[in-house]
Write a structure and sequence with these properties.
Blueprint: E1 2-7, H1 11-21, E2 27-33, H2 36-46, E3 50-54, H3 62-72, E4 79-83, H4 88-94, E5 99-102, H5 107-121, E6 128-133, E7 136-141, E8 145-151, E9 154-159, E10 164-167, H6 171-175, E11 182-186, E12 189-192, E13 196-200, E14 205-208, E15 214-216, H7 222-232
Parallel strand pairs: 1-2, 1-3, 3-4, 4-5
Antiparallel strand pairs: 6-7, 8-9, 8-12, 9-10, 11-12, 13-14, 14-15
Helix pairs in contact: 1-5
Protein name: LytTR family transcriptional regulator DNA-binding domain-containing protein
InterPro entries: CheY-like_superfamily, LytR-like, LytTR_DNA-bd_dom, Sig_transdc_resp-reg_receiver
GO molecular function, one term: DNA binding
């Protein structure tokens, strides 16, 4: 699980950032603060993977905070700076920030920044997926997931050992967080292409290897079906009449 922390005193900015992060289940919030001491203590104690930092109005000198932080840690903290002044970006670059966002923020710019960080720093997916429900944490080996099925506002994970695990988030939440061998083929299904043993275009169904599961797909997701077919069918032979 990848953690993030927000240094800000503006509820609107904080809530906008948290709203975008809600679409990426691999990220876990460890809170937010506008207190110099509390923010410093939280970062040093919990070592978040990513920090969003409003450089304008929170501390008298935000870059003094960064300098002090760097003297106490062995590794550089990944920080995304936020400011109304585009000239502040120069100082952010000098302090090795991973990104800079101009205020007022938009969901699109926040999302792009998160995805850039994810691409650069999280290229190797964890083998385990953590499903959270209040204080209950359940871990699934990603390689063992056959497919995901939407059930209203929950998602059922079908596992290779025959078990089914339910999570209290929508299918869309997991769609952008799983490795690229997981593809959406239906409004209610995401499948692991590594377990596909048959694609029947006539019946619009996929068969899952060594199981009785037959998953429907729709024309809306034909591009994904074609990708699965092309990636699995290295050599194909014409049918015999």
């Amino acid at each position: 699980m990848t953690s993030y922390f927000i240094i800000d005193n503006n509820d609107e900015i904080t809530n906008t950032i948290k709203k975008v992060f809600a679409d990426y289940s691999m990220f876990n919030s460890i809170g937010f603060s506008s207190s110099y001491e509390e923010a410093m203590n939280t970062i040093l104690k919990k070592r978040p993977d990513l920090v969003f930092f409003n450089l304008d109005d929170v501390f008298n000198n935000s870059f003094e905070f960064i300098s002090e932080l760097n003297t106490c840690t062995d590794t550089q903290t990944n920080i995304i700076g936020i400011s109304r002044d585009k000239n502040t970006a120069y100082f952010a670059i000098k302090h090795n920030f991973v990104d800079f966002l101009l205020n007022p923020l938009t969901e699109l710019e926040i999302r792009k920044s998160i995805l850039k960080f994810k691409k650069k720093h999280l290229t190797n997916y964890s083998k385990m997926l953590c499903l959270k429900s209040y204080k209950d944490f359940q871990y699934i080996n990603i390689e063992d997931i056959l497919f995901l099925k939407a059930d209203n506002n929950t998602t059922d994970f079908y596992i290779s050992d025959g078990s089914i695990v339910s999570a209290f988030k929508t299918l869309k939440t997991y769609e952008s967080n799983l490795p690229n061998n997981f593809l959406r083929i239906h409004k209610s299904y995401i499948i692991n292409k590594n377990y596909v043993s048959r694609i029947n275009y006539g019946k619009l169904k996929c068969t899952i290897d060594n199981t009785s599961h037959v998953i429907p797909f729709t024309k809306t997701y034909f591009d994904n079906i074609e990708f699965i077919n092309n990636s699995l069918a290295d050599i194909s032979f014409p049918s015999q009449n």
